[in-house]
Amino acid sequence: MNPLEKINKTDLPKHIAIIMDGNGRWAKQQGEDRIFGHHEGVNSVREIVEAAAEIGIKYLTLYAFSTENWNRPKEEVDALMELLVATISLETPQLNKNGVKLEAIGNLKSLPEACYNELQESITATQHNTRLTLVLALSYSSKWELTEAVKEISKKVGSGKLKAEEISENTIAQFLCTKAYPDPELMIRTSGEHRISNFLLWQLAYAEFYFTDKLWPDFRKNDFYEAIISYQNRERRFGKTSEQLMSHKK
Ligand code: IPE
Ligand code: IPE
Ligand code: MG
Question: What are the domain boundaries of the chain?
């Protein structure tokens, strides 16, 4: 049976987040430079976005560039930004065709102007699509996001618009870049690294983690389906006992 047939379509995660890692190592294995790996990684992005839309995932967040990635060699950062602009403009018609709405989270103002403009154009061009929301995390880090949220909440408290005692988990969630999305139920990281590298610390509080040794350019539709199958075979207890969940099912 192929992996797609093993997926229970009535129990899909609404939101999947992915740390797309391993482009550089993939390129090295081919005797190429790191940029070559980033180019190949775009093909995986295209396949996974298509797969997510096809099976009915509503939100897909892809970690494309972290705050820390600005510290890479300038040639690599420049190449990544160029690739981003080129890919976004090239893929927009396909996103529209597949009903994909593009959005972005992160410190977007820190992106080069051309990149920022291209991104905004594509966001506008796809804003009415409803099948899948594709969220690109760009110049994103969770500690940056949480720091910004604390600043904004403090301003509200300072100006008397919000009482400190009234701050709830929901208040905090409403000040994050992800306020419009449900928390991801599943987080996938490729390349064999077992860490979250400053990605969605708050939002992943109860996510299921799926790690695979595959490098991102090798991660394709069937690998994505396998991750979903693994998710569907887990018991999500949210602090309760297994027995409590069983009696609830009856
Ligand atoms: C992920 O691949 C892409 C980005 C972080 C932009 P890497 O570039 O981190 O590849 P490795 O981890 O060095 O192999
Ligand atoms: C995480 O990958 C960021 C992205 C995938 C965009 P990194 O390769 O930058 O993470 P570390 O350095 O291995 O933690
Ligand atoms: Mg990496």
Answer: 13-141+183-232
User: pLDDT tier at 5 (50, 70, 90 boundaries)?
Assistant: very high
Q: Of residues 33, 69, 96, 198, which has the active-site annotation?
A: 69
| Straight-line distance from the first to the last Cα atom of the chain, in angstroms, rounded to the nearest whole number | 30
Write the DSSP symbol of residue 14: S
Give which of 201, 51, 75 is closest to 137, Cα–Cα.
201
94 pLDDT band (50/70/90 cuts)?
Answer: very high
Ligand 2 probe mutation, 18, 34, 65, 197, most atoms within 8 A of CB: 197
Token pair recorded at residue 234? 């887990």
What is the value of pTM for the model shown? 0.98
Closest protein CA for atom 9 of ligand 2: 69
Q: What's the CATH architecture for 13-141+183-232?
A: 3-Layer(aba) Sandwich (3.40)
